[in-house]
Design brief:
The protein is of the alpha/beta class. The protein has 6 helices and 5 strands; from the N terminus they run ααβαβαβββαα. It has a 5-stranded mixed sheet with strand order 2-1-3-5-4. Strand 4 and strand 5 form a beta hairpin. The radius of gyration is 26 Å and the shape is globular. The two termini are 44 Å apart.
Length: 182
């Protein structure tokens, strides 16, 4: 019969022989909070020591949905379009943390395969046909080998057109089916 035992409780002689170095008591250094935004991974200002972020293996990381768009002369998507995109994504139970926005307007040597990386789901917003994979006519939802591709109009045109919004909604429901509750 095996005996389950704890090293600390059942074998203090082992510990005394194993730990032969001197033990030093070091005072913890208070954490410095530099961000004004609340962050649950950081300790409060009064907590001793520094908190470490939990290790998250890449195999369990949230899949990234790439959104390729064209906004010439702009660094970011206009607020109105971003708000519309956030509403659209939330309707299919997605949020901006799962999306990588890529503005390809100024890319002279654009490579579609390079832009999508290892993403398995890609949405294009207002891309011209010459920027899409060969044989893809937009708009539409395409199931390609190892890739689900949704090509739609730019968000400003889509937000102002009921027919385009309806089509976008139908394609998104196919691309991101709702999880069934138990």
């Amino acid at each position: 019969m095996k005996k389950n035992f704890s090293l600390l409780a059942d074998s203090p002689e082992f510990l005394a022989g194993f730990f032969t170095e001197d033990i030093y008591h070091v005072q913890p250094v208070p954490a410095k909070i530099t961000s004004q935004e609340p962050d649950s991974d950081k300790p409060p200002a009064s907590a001793p020591g520094l908190a470490k972020k939990p290790f998250m293996p890449s195999a369990v990381a949230t899949p990234v949905i790439r959104v390729l768009m064209t906004y010439p002369g702009q660094q970011q998507m206009p607020a109105k379009d971003k708000n519309f995109l956030m509403k659209v994504l939330s309707a299919v139970k997605l949020d901006m943390k799962q999306v990588k926005l890529i503005n390809i307007a100024e890319s002279s040597n654009f490579d579609f395969a390079e832009a999508i990386g290892d993403s398995r789901q890609v949405i294009t917003l207002g891309l011209e046909a010459d920027r899409l994979p060969e044989g893809i006519a937009k708009p539409g939802l395409y199931d390609l080998p190892d890739l689900q591709l949704l090509c739609v109009w730019d968000l400003t045109k889509t937000a102002n057109d009921k027919q385009r919004k309806r089509l976008l909604w139908e394609w998104l429901q196919i691309m991101f089916p709702a999880k069934k509750s138990k």
